[in-house]
Amino acid sequence: MKTVILAGGFGTRLSEYTTQIPKPMVPIGRHPLLWHLMSFYASYGFKEFILALGYRSEDIKQYFQNYRNSHSDFTVDLSNGNIVYHAQSAQLDWKITLVDTGADSMTGGRLKRVSQHLDDEPFMMTYGDGLSDVNLHDLQSFHQSHGKKITVTAVRPVARFGEMTIEGSKVSAFSEKPQISEGWINGGFFVLERSVLEYIQDDSTIFEKFPLE
User: Fold this and answer.
1) How far is CA 181 from CA 151, 156, 158, 163, 176, in A?
2) What's the Cα-to-Cα distance from 129 to each of 24, 29, 81, 169, 188, rounded to whole Å?
3) Which pTM was predicted?
4) DSSP state of 25
5) Cα–Cα distances in angstroms (integers) from residue 170 to residues 166, 173, 208, in the given order
6) What pLDDT, on a 0 to 100 scale, did the predictor assign at position 184?
7) CATH code assigned to 3-156+184-199
8) What phi and psi, each to the nearest 5 degrees, are found at residue 48?
9) If you average pLDDT over each of 67-76, 126-135, 161-170, which comes out highest?
10) Residue-wise over 156-173: b if at least 16 C-beta within 10 A, else e?
11) In the chain, fewer beta carbons within 10 Å around the N or the C end?
């Protein structure tokens, strides 16, 4: 099963980083966020990726194009350009298709633009700026069980502010930023049937609007 990652947004909410790099390339430890996300999928055996790029797409392309050189010890023969790699730890068995889907395309438009690299089988999809511990095998099995076009992972986020319980003029309980009890939101880890692409008109289609609604 292929995995589509939408990695083309402007990342305005992380503007202190994303004026220089795309949001999926913000570092977490020694690797960018995108690498951690792909490693998570790969740990479940999903190792074929399609990256829908947009803003600063060249940064992501260069990262993967230079990945082996950046993470390996090697000997280069400058007389002929031959390179012999010594360290095997950097080798990954991922297959990555990088597609520039336009700087201004919406999420649905990006998905539509990578359709030529999809086959008729269901595929995984997520956003390039979110990590999770969702069980991807359970997600896949659940999708296969219900026969619908889309499976979406729902989450309850932590509230932005502290919560108070008030009785009359007295605060009887206070909880600092609890997990909200209602209001499930899109957690961003999908399984899609290819037929979902029929609901996407063009680059201006927001996947979370008409297709999902």
Assistant:
1) 22, 7, 9, 12, 14
2) 5, 15, 37, 43, 10
3) 0.85
4) G
5) 6, 9, 42
6) 87
7) 3.90.550.10
8) -110, 115
9) 126-135
10) eeeeeeeeeeeeeeeeee
11) C
Residue 194 CA neighbour count, 13 Å, CB half: 11
Q: How far apart are the first and last CA of the chain?
A: 25
Q: Classify burial at 29, counting beta carbons within 10 Å of its beta carbon; exposed 0-12, middle 13-18, buried 19 or more.
A: exposed
Return the minimum-mean-pLDDT range out of 13-22, 92-101, 126-135, 138-147: 13-22
**Residue labelled with tokens 């400058």:** 78
The string over 185-205, giving b where at least 16 C-beta atoms fall within 10 Å of a residue's C-beta and e elsewhere, is: eebbbbbbbeebeebbeeeeb
Please, what's the b/e burial string for 80-89 (b: 16 or more CB within 10 A of its CB; e: otherwise)?
Answer: eeeeeeeeee
- Does residue 196 carry a pLDDT above 80? yes
Residue from 176, 180, 178 nearest 154 by CA: 180
